[in-house]
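<context>
A single protein, sequence plus fold
<sample>
Here is the protein in question:
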Amino acid sequence: MNTPEAVVGVGADLLADAVEAQAVPVTRVDWRPPMEGTESDLAAVAADPRRPEANARALSAMLEVTATLVDVVPAAEALGLEPGQFLHAGPPIEWARASGPLRGALMGGAALEGLVEDPDEAVALFESGTSVSLEPCHHRSTVGPMAGVVTPSMWLWVLEDPASGRRTYCSLNEGLGKVLRYGAYGPEVLTRLRWMGDVLGPLLQRSVRDTVASSGPVDVTGILTQMLQMGDEAHNRNRAGTLMLLRDLSPAMVTSGYDAADVAQALRFVGGNDHFFLNLAMPACKLALDAARGIEGSTMVVAMARNGTDFGIQVAGTGDEWFTGPAQLADGLFLGDYGPDDANPDIGDSAITETAGIGGFAMATAPAIVRFVGGSVPDALATTRRMHEITLGENPRWSVPVLEFQGTPTGIDVTKVCRTGILPQINTGMAGAVAGVGQVGAGLVTPPAEIFPQALAALAQAVPGRSL
């Protein structure tokens, strides 16, 4: 009787344990059936002759981008925003379906722009819809954390890929707690935003322009590379990145000619806001992912975003179409006396970091993050390893020291998500469900599972020669 060279078993570990007890090498695979109802679409997309080359192109295009900081300008100048035009995080949504934190941020934004005197008066303004409009940040090459509201007078970071000249944008980070992006709009919130518009924005503009003139643009991609090796994961932990940015800009801030008290206040504000660099990491990731848009046959996800009501993804091979499902509640840690009943479902464009392979995908670089979002250090290591199962490759620039400098898992593949049932892991802050509350906690969340079969079905429909 011939001894078999290999045995494949499915189900319980009993057979594998018995074989292993006989000193025979055993390879255990965490296999599971594909998502229900996706078999036909998976077969169609797998047979698409364009897919291998399209995915290789998409991943390569993304990895070739270098994001550099070249300017800071008001949104009216950078994006052509006019009074009454508001950008927001996530896929498209109307006021009637807007979540509490998004409504709070829009109300505060209306007061900031002088459209109303009191934020509460803005409810009628948005309900009428006659002189205001809402549009996703992503539709204007922009990303916004949490509610993501951008108004014409807000100052934006301007990032550029020197090879292509493409640009992306993001607002300045206010800090944590009661801030506009978490839906708070009290007097202290508006006072801070006005100071950011009157002092911080112009000072950063002068400093960035002087830095570019004297030593060239700030290499944001390079800072991301360094901070991942210094304990940050670039979504909910940005301490090293913020301090490196301050290192690059502070000499020009000091010599800008601005009032010394204003410079000192700005330095204190940035240095005391560990999340300040997040608003540079996000547009850097978007700049890279936008390079992969419009590649027919590619199954790579190029955006994940939430508006507090819906969670949406966009895919390289399906143009600008959004595939949406209900935003999920995060599981994590709460501030003070807040609890799960106080939290709004997931919100923000900041999942662009996970889409690019950092944030929740790079938790192994920042084990200390578990003290902020929950979980354990072994969980953080396991998460990064698990994300490799649903991605197209690794990013050699962004490596994980504790995993022998393995590149971060990069390029979420719709087909792999549907085939394995493994959902992308996201680190997130939690906003209060009621407009005006602000931040109530931070935690871990995944997208709604149904959006990936939606995207897969659209990809299958587009396979050349497929009979419907």
About this structure: The chain has a mean pLDDT of 94. The longest helix spans residues 187-215. The first strand starts at residue 68 and ends at 74. The two ends are 49 Å apart (CA to CA).
